[in-house]
Amino acid sequence: MHVDQVPRRLVVDASVGLKWVLEEEQSDLATALGRGRDLFTSALFWVEAGNAIASRVRRGEIGRERGNDALQDLRRAPLHTRSLDADAVVAALAIAHDLRHPIYDCCYLALALEKNALVVTADRRFRTSVAAHPALAERVVLLRNIVLPSHR
């Protein structure tokens, strides 16, 4: 899928959001994807992003100050965050049962269904689980499968 074909409304998970603030493979693609779109995420995003940053600091991949800066940079991203209230969890749980997949990722998918949006993730396992479900397969796109104009 070409970046110009990606819908205007997107749900992003922490695997994509972290690419905005830490130099990673496909950071340029994640940044380009975020421009000019309505971006939604689950409140879970903030816990997952914070945990990933803390893990990198513990492993010595980045310093504590860089980790703190990354989270502050992420806070400035133009994200609309959906709370994790009981209704959100009920919807995610139903999807988790259907997919036989952890509920964490399903929180993003439930939000995408609520907002009539597409989930973009860098999580191959999540994409593979959703790909096997006929009614949901088109709702999740793997970041690496989106093509920038210069990569054609």
Explain how this protein is built.
The protein has 152 residues and is of the alpha/beta class. It has a single domain (3-145), classed as 3-Layer(aba) Sandwich (Rossmann fold). 51% of the residues lie in helices and 13% in strands. It has seven helices and five strands, in the order βααβααβααβαβ. It has helices spanning 14-21, 27-34, 44-58, 64-75, 86-99, 103-115, 124-131; strands at residues 9-12, 38-42, 79-82, 118-121, 140-142. It has a five-stranded parallel beta sheet, with helices on both faces. β4, α7 and β5 (140-142) form a beta-alpha-beta unit. The radius of gyration is 15 Å and the shape is globular. It starts with 8 loop residues before the first strand and ends in a 10-residue tail after the last strand.
